[in-house]
Amino acid sequence: xxxxxxxxxxxxxxxxxxxxxxxxxxxxxxxxxxxxxxxxxxxxxxxxxxxxxxxxxxxxxxxxxxxxxxxxxxxxxxxxxxxxxxxxxxxxxxxxxxxxxxxxxxxxxxxxxxxxxxxxxxxxxxxxxxxxxxxxxxxxxxxxxxxxxxxxxxxxxxxxxxxxxxxxxxxxxxxxxxxxxxxxxxxxxxxxxxxxxxxxxxxxxxxxxxxxxxxxxxxxxxxxxxxxxxxxxxxxxxxxxxxxxxxxxxxxxxxxxxxxxxxxxxxxxxxxxxxxxxxxxxxxxxxxxxxxxxxxxxxxxxxxxxxxxxxxxxxxxxxxx
Amino acid sequence: xxxxxxxxxxxxxxxxxxxxxxxxxxxxxxxxxxxxxxxxxxxxxxxxxxxxxxxxxxxxxxxxxxxxxxxxxxxxxxxxxxxxxxxxxxxxxxxxxxxxxxxxxxxxxxxxxxxxxxxxxxxxxxxxxxxxxxxxxxxxxxxxxxxxxxxxxxxxxxxxxxxxxxxxxxxxxxxxxxxxxxxxxxxxxxxxxxxxxxxxxxxxxxxxxxxxxxxxxxxxxxxxxxxxxxxxxxxxxxxxxxxxxxxxxxxxxxxxxxxxxxxxxxxxxxx
Amino acid sequence: xxxxxxxxxxxxxxxxxxxxxxxxxxxxxxxxxxxxxxxxxxxxxxxxxxxxxxxxxxxxxxxxxxxxxxxxxxxxxxxxxxxxxxxxxxxxxxxxxxxxxxxxxxxxxxxxxxxxxxxxxxxxxxxxxxxxxxxxxxxxxxxxxxxxxxxxxxxxxxxxxxxxxxxxxxxxxxxxxxxxxxxxxxxxxxxxxxxxxxxxxxxxxxxxxxxxxxxxxxxxxxxxxxxxxxxxxxxxxxxxxxxxxxxxxxxxxxxxxxxxxxxxxxxxxxxxxxx
Lengths: 321, 271, 275
What we know:
The complex is a heterotrimer of chains A (321), B (271) and C (275).
Chain A: E1 2-5, H1 6-16, E2 21-26, E3 29-33, H2 47-50, E4 54-61, E5 64-67, E6 74-79, H3 81-94, H4 102-110, E7 112-116, E8 142-147, E9 150-155, H5 157-163, E10 167-168, H6 171-186, H7 196-202, H8 208-213, H9 221-225, E11 232-239, E12 242-249, H10 270-289, H11 299-303, H12 310-317
Parallel strand pairs in A: 2-6, 6-7, 7-8
Antiparallel strand pairs in A: 1-9, 1-10, 2-3, 4-5, 4-12, 8-9, 11-12
Chain B: E1 8-17, E2 24-30, E3 42-47, E4 51-56, E5 65-71, H1 75-81, E6 88-95, H2 101-104, E7 108-114, H3 119-130, E8 138-144, H4 153-160, E9 166-171, E10 181-182, H5 185-192, E11 199-204, H6 207-220, E12 227-230, E13 246-247, E14 250-251, E15 258-260, H7 261-264
Parallel strand pairs in B: 7-8, 7-11, 8-9, 9-10, 11-12
Antiparallel strand pairs in B: 1-2, 1-6, 2-5, 3-4, 3-6, 12-15, 13-14
Helix pairs in contact in B: 5-6
Chain C: H1 2-14, E1 20-26, E2 31-36, E3 67-71, H2 73-84, E4 93-97, H3 112-115, E5 127-128, H4 141-147, H5 151-163, H6 170-174, H7 199-212, H8 222-226, H9 234-248
Parallel strand pairs in C: 1-3, 3-4, 4-5
Antiparallel strand pairs in C: 1-2
Helix pairs in contact in C: 4-9, 5-7
C-alpha cells in the first residue's frame, strides 16, 4: 500500500487530460471532464466511459467501409469499486476469441480505471452479496482510500507509472484501511445468492414471475443506469458524406427490443422481459462466465419509478424471502 | 484483433422475384475471397443507410455465389427488394452454427419445410447431394400456400427426377395444373410416413407449421435429439454481443440458429 | 383513510364488482403499485404521500376484467380520458376515489403538479373515500412564469432540460396516455427522429411527446417523477394543457363522453393560428 497526496493526484489528473480522455463523476453523473471530478456515487455509472450511450462503429464512404478510428485512451477516475467491477463483468461478454467486441476492448485495454473506496455505502447497496465489497479492487487499476489530505493506494504498475508512487503507507494507514473497510462492509445488506443460478433456472416457468413483474413499466431506467447492462442497438445514420453506423444503449425491458418485423414478439409481456433481465444477471451470466452479472450497486432500486426492488425479487426467487 | 462488425462489400450478380406476388426476392451476390461455410449458417446483409439484417445462406457451399431469398417484411428487407444487378451491399459472415452434417453420415435424412423458411435447406440439400454416397435415404417434404411460393421450384422439379432422392412438394389447396400433393405439411408428412429409425430430421418453417408438425414427428417416433430446427429471432450484431436474441443462456446468432429439439426443450419458449 | 380504502376494496370484492384491484402497497423505498386478487389481501393496501405513480397506467393490461383502481384526482382523470379514447369501458373499471392530500418527494417537498392541483378529488368515481377536497384555482402560474421568459431563455431552458435525457422512456411508460402500439420514436419507416442523444433528437422527442399529450394529460406529473435523470417535463405538458383550456375551454378527464379537442372537430374551433 502506498500513500499519495490528494493534490498530487488531482494535479496529475488535470495534466493527463492532454493525452487521455478523462471520465469522472461530475454533477452527479460519470461524464467526460477536463480532469475535474467530484467525490460521489454517480447516477450514470462508469460504463459510460467504455460503452457510451452512443458510439460510431463504422463509416460507409465512397463505396468503402472504414473502421471508426480509435480515440485517445481513457482514464476513468473516482468511481466506486462496484462500477470498476462492473466493467470487468462487461468485459467477460465482450472478450470473445471468435468475435471480440473491438470497440469495447480497445478502449478497455488502453484505459485505466481508478476507483475510490466506498466508505459510506448507501441503504440500497448490496455489493457484499457477491463476494466483493466497498473496498474491492477487482476491475480497478488502483483503489484509492481517502485519508485526510492523502489517498491510500492499492494499485498496479500501470497506475503508479502515471501518477507517481508517493510514499510507503504507514502502519496506521493500514489499520485505517482495514477499519474503514470493516465499517463499510458491516453497513451493507447481504442477500443470499447460494446456487441462485440453478434455483432460478428451476423456476423458469414458475407463475411467481407474473406476480414479480406486474408492476414493471418496461422502461429502460434500470438497464441504462445499471453498470453491467451492455445491450445495444445498431442503426445507420445517413450523412451528407455517407453513412455512419452507430450503436446505442438498448434495453431488454423495451417491447420492441425483441419484436420482429412480422409483428411476432418472443418476449411479449413484462413477464418474459423482467424474467430475462433477472435470469441474464443471475443465471445465464454465472452459467456463461462464472460470475453474477450484478455488482449490487443498487441503482436499479433507487431509480425505478415503481420501486421494483431487485433485492426483494432475489429473496423471493432464491427462497429466502 | 479482427473486427467482426465490418462488412465486406460485394456486388449483386442477380436479383429476381421468386413469387408472383413479389413478396419474395432472391439475390445472388459475389462470394468474397476465402468465404467458406456450412449449410445452416447465415450472413448479416447491410444496406448502407438502412441497416443490417440476418439471412440464412441458400446457396450450397460449393457454389461460386451466395444466395439469399428475402421476404419483404420490414425496413431493411424492403430496401433489399429494391436491389438490382450490379448494386453493392455489405455482408458479414458466415455467422452462427450449421446443421450437424457430420452426424448425418451413413444415416437417413428427412427434411421438412414450409414457405420461405426453405432457404438454408436448399443449401443443405445440395450439400448432401454433392456427396450422395455418404448418406442413406434423403427425403424432402416441402410445402407452401401456393405453387409460386415454393422457393427454387424449377430446380426442385428437376431434382424430383433423380432416383436417389425422394421429394414431396405440396400446396395448401388445389391449383390448376398442380399435380403434386395438396394439403398442409404435417398432413403430407403423416401420409408419407417416413421411418424414424436411423433418421435425422431437419425442420424449418413458419410457427404454425412447426406447431402442427411437432405432434406428427412425435407420433412417427423421432427422438427429440435427432430433430433439428433453425430458429429466427430479431438480431442486430449477429455475434452474441447486442443481447436481444438469447434463449436462455444461448444466443441464437452465435450458439444457433440450429438447435436440436431436446436442447430447446430445456429452454424458455422465447422464440 | 387507509382503513376506509381497505373496507371499500373488501366490499367491492365481496359484491363481485372487481376481480382485481390496482392499489398502493408498502414498498422498500416508498409506496409501490400492488395488484390484489382476493379480498384477504386488501390489508396490504396503504395510502400516504408517496403514492405518486399514476395507477391508470396499468389498467389497459387488464382489459376485459372487472378492475378496481385506487385513484387520486389525477389517476381518475386519466381513467376518464382512457374511457373517452375507447381504451377502456366504464363498466369494466371500478374507481375507488381518494381525495388527494398532495404527494411529496423524499425530501418532503410537495410536487409541482400537486402544488397547483385543481382536482385533488376524483371528478368521476364509483365510491369516494373521505371528504372531498377543494382544488386550487391558480391557472398555471408556473407556466405563466415560463411564458414570461424571453424566447432565447426559454430555448436555453428547454435545451438544457432535454440534454439530460437518456431516452429510457420512463416518462412514456409511466404515462397512462402513452399507450400507442408503436411510439413515434420507435418507428423506422418513416423515421421521425434519429436515435441517440443528439440535442435535436432529444428536443424533438420531448416536444412531440408533449404535443401528443395536449388535452389528454391529467397533470399528474408521473412522467417527471419517473424520470431518473430529473428532466423537467411538466412545463411543456402544462403549457399545452393551458393552451387547450384557453382555446377550447376543455379540461381533461372530467367527462368520459367528451373527446379530447385534438381528437375531434367543431366549426366553433378557433382559427386565429391560421391567420
